[in-house]
TrEMBL record, chain A:
InterPro entries the UniProt entry points to: FAD/NAD-bd_sf, GIDA_C_N, MnmG-rel, MnmG-rel_CS, MnmG_C, MnmG_C_subdom, MnmG_C_subdom_sf, MnmG_N
Name of the protein in question: 5-taurinomethyluridine-[tRNA] synthase subunit MTO1, mitochondrial
GO cellular component, one term: cytosol
Assembly with partners or alone: Homodimer; forms a dimer in the presence of potassium. Interacts with GTPBP3; forms the GTPBP3-MTO1 complex composed of homodimers of GTPBP3 and MTO1.
Organism: Myodes glareolus
Length: 635, 501
């Protein structure tokens, strides 16, 4: 339905400093010989993050978008975060990205999912006021230093000869008209995915009184590490309501399947967020959940999550009327299906630069992902790397062992995707270490040092938190009493008195019944000061919770990192290299995915153990040659 | 080595990069990499066995076993008495070689222990190493893998590697398949399947349980959680537990049943050992206290492999050397699978005989016959010295069943062999009808680790931790069957090498 250029997907191109111009064609009276380091095409969730990140890194950046007033638009659901997605937002925030901070100025119903399942899998989530989010995002983007926003449609790339010594058949040096066709002509493999959106309902026509009301968390947990609290008090936030489909809904769907083109087509739809038609077909005779979510503080619309549908409008109205609480609901817009192009993400490297065209980066839906958070995560990384590319610095890559962002990008670039890719916690091997609470410790310092994209304020805050945590942990470890003394101090905890060696405060904090406040009331000196700041106390408790298991995991992480340290040369032509014995099939697979490391190569399905070892041998041989050369030089 | 490789990659790659960047974790710091150990020479009885360690804790292991403060000079052979670091029990006199990294086979700190090749010595040293903090048994091929990772394999060796792997993975997989084709393999695969399902349920519950936008089928699974998963895990725990109880059986079949001959001095223990082994293993003399050390000899008894130990006669208040002999005898007694208590039939009223009956025989006889403890046979030797009519009532024997025997004439030997066969069959199990045997210590290790992980699952209310426990349990099972873990291709390759190579 939509072509590439119609959606908020974007590509960034980093332009050489000495290039005389960036060729732009635009309706406004823009300077036609402007000079930018980085051009970002598209102002969706990936584009805004990329543009802001490139500017934070110090690059003169141009954001090109059809209309400035669509920047920050939430095109589908009125919410941010969720399980796995909340992790991504925390990581985007740790890289000083925008979406978490903007959400904390625009949320209207904060609720952490998985509250009872352990802090490693908490899903930070909030309903967001669409209007506020857009306003706040535009304010942020239009006030970012070094960032210029320009209305206009990018239609082509200006390509020049490739830089020698780098992979890629040409180099992008500017942009003009007909982008989608250009990309196909350049040889990018294009696929097609589909998704859908539910109808919108008039709030005043719904009978909420008979429905299950869900109130937000009190207190709200903010998305951003910089937010002490969110802009709105819990009691002022809006509720959500839960209802279910009825057998009549099944009947209407089944009777009208012939009208539904969405299901019959072969294009792959998501296995999550499926349309009501696919749910009814796959799981008949069941009641399906429908969440009624507010679209904004002063919005008259309700978003019925779970009711994504492509039936003709009058049938949608009929179907809605069969649902409890919606008997008299007025449909303001019908739901509809969307099909969109994406480019096989195996055509990009982990820095998100394309293999084919130097200095051209892809991020967002164009890479086959779904969701605002997945888009934002790629956006930050592409923006940072476009900027680093301009200044000829090494790319900034988050590994699988460092963050959900790393897993997302490694999965996409190594394995590709045949359905809209969504983040889950179960995709992440080191879930216990990569938690929402510690994203700042994991990423902020690296981002500061290697990318320079972190504000001093954030850096200081993360440093303070890191040293407070370390200090707190060693204080907890140093306090040791006999188990019977602990039992007397904290009768609430089921401490076994049989334990003979002294028990540390850290061990006591591991009990579910114990938190820092309770511990500090038993041992005020020196623990009292760690309870003054609630966030610190909460994080100490989480660290204690996972302390013993993390020792195991750190060893495994180190082993993975060892494999990742075996780099494969990027200009390797897998189809023709002679020194390596590889089957044609393996060659093609490697050629397609272009793994950066032995670790990544070993994750590609179909690449055999023997092939991996042959590749290792190749790397070793190159290393020996290199060592020989160095020896000569020193002699 | 790593830096060298990175530097190469940096130059060769399109742009220099830093992949293995430092990572700051929570409030923790890097734990040192694990240290591994394994028997590197062949399995089974041989003159010398080589046990190897690799990793940062190698030095600690060396110091703990040799009880020395300083490591020996690098790369030179030193003779040391090895002791168990906890109990202080002497294990063996061994040649010890210390290879500080990077000038070692793997590039890490390494130690080689060249010990005597008896299975008891080898398993004793391995156990001792296992008790040193930071040490764990090596995965198959892990030494090679580490050597490779530290750039210690030459190019030609690497060249051969791919072919080798190709051949070895196939051969080993077939071998593992053959070994695990029977009931044990089926059981393990069944268990692994149960765990995979349980894990899928937990994962679905975590990722989809509270997220409205998911496929209902997944949620359906998640609804069943935690009831079905908890039930499955409990069933699995019970199954693993009962198999582990049988675990020693298979190992006994492989490395021999420990049969220990004990009794008061001069009862004829050494004569019995010589008789059973049909060779002069022990010096026999009429003088009490002739045998002072533990003498071990492998014997085939009724088709069962047996390690027969002759020990010093148990008595108090004698010379230092004999005291040590008595201490070793008691220690050996604790490790025995079958105990042969020998008494002088003509001297049952002597103090040493009574003391033996009170302190050794009575507790053993009091064991319930069904318990999995040690088996015990009481032998009355020197029956040739008895009057032709057997002693009417031996109150001293407390009604303990016993066999009459004369090592001198051989009378009663058939009866003894028959009784021993029954006992041997009981401790080894019947391999054709009983439950599948765990023939290797490795099997036991992984099953035990699996069981430990499952207990962590039960103990936690944090679902992320619970899922991690299930993952860990599943990993141990898949190590056993050789399947699974396909996503870690590198692991798979190197795993298919022999342990310790």
């Amino acid at each position: 339905m939509f072509l590439l250029r119609d959606r908020g997907r974007w590509a960034a191109a980093s332009l050489g400093k000495r290039l005389p111009s960036c060729r732009l064609r635009s309706d406004s009276a823009a300077p036609c010989r402007a000079h930018f380091d980085v051009v970002v095409i598209g102002g969706g969730h990936a584009g805004t993050e990329a543009a802001a990140a490139a500017a934070r890194c110090g690059s003169r950046t141009l954001l090109l978008t059809h209309r400035v007033d669509t920047i920050g638009q939430m095109s589908c659901n009125p919410s941010f975060g969720g399980i796995g997605k909340g992790h991504l937002m925390r990581e985007v925030d740790a890289l000083d990205g925008l979406c978490a901070r903007i959400c904390d100025q625009s949320g209207i119903h904060y609720k952490v999912l998985n509250r009872r399942k352990g802090p490693a899998v908490w899903g930070l989530r909030a309903q967001i006021d669409r209007k506020l989010y857009k306003q706040n995002m535009q304010k942020e983007i239009l006030n970012t230093p070094l960032l210029t926003v320009q209305e206009g449609a990018v239609e082509d790339l200006v390509l020049t000869e490739p830089e020698p010594g780098y992979a890629g058949k040409c180099r992008v040096s500017g942009v003009i008209l007909g982008l989608a066709q250009t990309l196909e002509k350049l040889g990018f493999v294009v696929g097609r995915l589909k998704t859908g959106t539910p109808p919108r309902l008039a709030k005043d026509s719904i009978n909420f009184n008979i429905l299950n009301k869900h109130t937000p968390d009190d207190p709200s947990i903010p998305f951003s590490f910089l937010s002490e609290t969110v802009w709105i008090k819990p009691e002022d936030q809006l509720p959500c309501y839960l209802t279910h489909t009825s057998p009549r809904v099944d009947e209407i769907v089944l009777a009208n399947l012939h009208l539904n083109s969405h299901i019959k087509e072969t294009t792959r739809g998501p296995r999550y967020c499926p349309s009501i038609e696919s749910k009814v077909l796959r799981f008949p005779n069941r009641l399906h959940q429908v969440w009624l979510e507010p679209e904004g503080m002063d919005s008259d619309l309700i978003y019925p999550q779970g009711l994504s549908v492509t039936l003709p409008a009058e049938l949608q109205e009929k179907m809605i009327a069969c649902i409890r609480g919606l008997e008299k609901a007025r449909m303001v817009h019908p739901g509809y299906g969307v099909q969109y192009d994406y480019l096989d993400p195996r055509q990009i490297s982990p820095s998100l630069e394309t293999h084919l065209v130097q200095r051209l980066f892809f991020a967002g839906q164009i890479n086959g992902t779904t969701g605002y958070e997945e888009a934002a995560a790629q956006g930050v990384i592409a923006g940072i790397n476009a900027s680093l590319r301009v200044s000829r610095k090494p790319p900034f890559i988050v590994s699988r062992t460092e963050g959900y962002i790393g897993v997302l990008i490694d999965d996409l670039t190594t394995l590709g995707t045949s359905e809209p890719y969504r983040m889950f916690t179960s995709r992440v091997e080191f879930r216990l270490s990569l938690r929402p609470d510690n994203a700042d410790i994991r990423l902020t310092f690296r981002a500061h040092k290697d990318a320079g994209c972190v504000s001093p304020q954030r850096y200081e805050r993360a440093s303070w938190m890191k040293s407070s945590l370390e200090e707190g942990m060693s204080a907890l470890k140093s306090i040791e009493f006999s188990s019977s003394k602990w039992k007397k101090l904290i009768p609430q905890a089921p401490i076994s008195i049989n334990r003979s060696p002294p028990v540390s405060a850290l061990d006591v904090l591991k009990y579910e019944e114990v938190d820092m406040e309770l511990l500090a009331s038993a041992v005020p000196e020196p623990l009292k000061k760690y309870t003054a700041y609630r966030e610190l106390a909460r994080r100490l408790k989480i660290e204690a919770n996972y302390e013993s298991v993390l020792l195991y995991q750190l060893q495994e992480i180190k082993e993975v990192q060892r494999d990742e340290a075996f780099q494969l040369p990027q200009d390797l032509d897998y189809l023709t290299i002679k020194d390596v014995s590889l089957s044609q099939e393996v060659r093609e697979k490697l050629h397609l995915s272009r793994p950066q490391t032995i670790g990544a190569a070993s994750r590609i399905p179909g690449v055999t153990p023997a092939a991996v070892v042959n590749l290792l041998r190749f790397v070793k041989a190159a290393q020996q040659r290199q060592a020989g050369v160095t020896e000569h030089q020193t002699n | 080595m790593w830096r060298g490789l990175s530097a190469l990659a940096t130059r060769a790659a399109r742009a220099p990069r830093r992949l293995c960047a430092r990572r700051s974790s929570g409030a923790g710091s890097w734990t040192p990499e694990s240290t591994i150990f394994a028997l590197s020479s062949g399995q089974g009885r041989c003159a010398i066995a080589v046990i190897r360690t690799s990793g940062p804790a190698s030095g600690i292991a060396l110091r703990s076993l040799t009880a020395s403060r300083e490591p020996p000079p690098a790369r030179s052979a030193c003779l040391h008495l090895l002791r168990h670091p906890r109990s202080g029990e002497p294990l063996d006199r061994a040649l010890v070689l210390w290879f500080p990294g990077p000038r070692s086979f793997t590039g890490e700190d390494c130690v080689e222990f060249h010990v005597h090749g008896g299975p008891a010595v080898v398993s004793g040293v391995l156990q001792a190493l296992g008790s040193v903090p930071g040490l764990r048994p090596a995965e198959p091929g892990e030494f090679t893998r580490r050597a490779f990772a530290h750039g210690k394999l030459s190019l030609t060796e690497v060249e051969g590697l791919a072919d080798l792997i190709h051949a070895e993975t196939e051969a080993q997989r077939r071998q593992a398949l053959r070994q695990l084709d029977g009931e044990l393999g089926q059981l393990c695969r069944g268990w692994a399947k149960t765990l995979t399902k349980a894990l899928a349920h937990v994962e679905a519950y975590i990722d989809f349980g509270e997220d409205g936008s998911l496929e209902e089928g997944v949620l359906e699974q998640a609804y069943l959680f935690p009831l079905t998963v908890d039930r499955d895990v409990r069933t699995l725990e019970a199954a693993l537990g009962s198999h582990l109880q049988d675990a020693r059986r298979g190992q006994r079949l492989r490395s021999g049943v420990h049969v220990v001959v004990t009794g008061p001095p001069n009862a004829g223990k050494s004569s019995l050992v010589n008789l059973l082994s049909q060779k002069p293993v022990s010096i026999v003399s009429p003088e009490p206290g002739t045998t002072r050390d533990v003498l071990e000899t492998p014997v085939d008894l009724a088709g069962f492999p047996v390690l027969l130990s002759d020990t010093a006669g148990l008595r108090e208040g004698v010379g230092m050397a004999e005291q040590e002999g008595v201490r070793r005898a008691r220690q050996r007694l604790e490790q025995a699978d079958i105990i042969l208590g020998v008494l002088d039939a003509s001297d049952l009223a002597s103090p040493s005989c009574c003391s033996f009956l009170d302190t050794v025989v009575a507790p053993l006889a009091a064991q319930s016959p069904t318990s999995s403890g040690q088996r015990f046979l009481l032998l009355l030797n020197k029956s040739d010295l008895l009057p032709t009519s057997p002693p009417a009532s031996d109150t001293a024997l407390l009604g303990t069943p016993h066999l009459l025997l004369s090592c001198l004439t051989g009378a009663g030997l058939d009866g003894l062999l028959q009784a021993l066969k029954t006992e041997l069959a009981a401790v080894c199990g019947d391999s054709s009808t009983g439950p599948p045997l765990l023939t290797r210590a490795r099997h036991q290790h992984h099953l035990q680790s699996c069981l430990d992980a499952l207990s962590h699952y039960q103990a936690t209310t944090d679902l992320a931790l619970a899922a991690e426990a299930l993952r860990r349990a599943r990993k141990h099972l898949s190590h056993l069957t050789g399947g699974g873990g396909t996503e870690e291709v590198l692991d798979l390759i190197f795993r298919d090498f022999c342990v310790g190579k």
